[in-house]
Amino acid sequence: MKQGRTFASFDSSFEKGDYILLGIPYDETSSFRIGTHKGPEEIRKASYCFEPYIMEYAISLEQLDLHDAGDIKEIKNFQDLREKISEAISKIIGQDKFPIILGGEHSVTPPIVSSIQKNVSDLKILVLDAHLDFRDEYEGMKHSHATVSKRISETVGLENITIGGVRSISSESVEKKKPLFLTSKQVEENDCIDEILEETSRPIYLSIDMDVVDPSIAPGVGNPEPFGLSSVKMKELVSRLAPRLIGMDIVEINPEYDESNITSNLGARLIYELIGSREKKR
Predict the structure, then answer these.
(1) Which domains does the chain have, with CATH numbers?
(2) Strand ranges (E), the chain
């Protein structure tokens, strides 16, 4: 296929693929910047920026079985989205393959988690996000990018979700019983991710809202928040977490505000990091 139509080197069939990439170009509840529905396409384009050989891990993506399943299309409403996500994720997880999901806005993550939990018991969720997103509803919607951690906690339990990189929280969430969350400063300066890994041997699903990264590095997001994580820290986190993950999504990349496509570029490179680390430690 033409450059940008699939993620680089993801040219195996679904049946052969160990990693399955799926785009979800959903952008219906964005409240500040519209445009995250273009994220999957731009991340795919950015993937061709890099050599398939990942020098840190001495592995080439061309040696692996990787499949790009394209995008979920013709989404009528959130219920339709949820049903299509359930069908797609169940097929991927049910055949013991690793899902890599490209958003789209962050509201796609709770249906993904719900679908994985039906197939995987004892699931732990780690969300990297600038915002706690623990409102019960936002702008009259319960299924919003601003209610993500609340909806996830209702699926897996409050004790089974951790949010890292937080530097914004709504006033209504302050007094509520909340999931464990770590500020961006805590994540940058401490080995808190190691502590999370040490305290549980359970499978982990990782959701990366790209606004967790500092907007000086990743400006192309729906809701940029200053004082975020560095790209080097993101690389370190994904590398450490990758061998324990059962799936991952990267959401909230907004190409409309992405100067020189640097946010899409970072998102694509984190997928290289994920695969390289997992394969090296197999």
Answers:
(1) 19-280 (3.40.800.10)
(2) 19-24, 53-54, 59-60, 66-71, 98-103, 124-128, 161-166, 180-183, 204-209, 245-251
